[in-house]
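Board notes (copied after class):
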Amino acid sequence: MSGNQLQYIPKKPLLIRGSLVRAQEGEQATESLYSNVRAFLIYVIYSPMFFVYILFSEKLNRYYIGFTSNLDQRLDFHHNDTQARKFTYKADDWILYFTLESKSKEQALAIEKHIKSMKSKTYIQNLVKYPEIKHKLLLKFNI
């Protein structure tokens, strides 16, 4: 088998770019299928995920709402930042209270803006208490 060919033997149908692709056992995948699978895998592996996150400080009794494409890096920033002009610098006990994974930057920004516009601790607490709100937000802001 050469480097550009792919042996594809699925047990179930595979949905790729909206079309159903079936291969019989022993049948080689076409170059077109190979390209579609490769494009799909590259998209899945390299497409950034965006997160809306909420931090809580017991010391301040305040919430911080933000969004990012790299949650671990952003949390490190909040915990290790030494710049006094940052809001999260005011306390050292921030915990990750809530996260929501979105499919696009636009969706994450819209959800972050919505949560901030609610200006309500009760609303934020309800995001954790009632997980269905998370799903409703993803549907409402399906950008």
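Comment from the instructor: Residues 1-29 have pLDDT under 50 and may be disordered. The longest helix spans residues 31-46.
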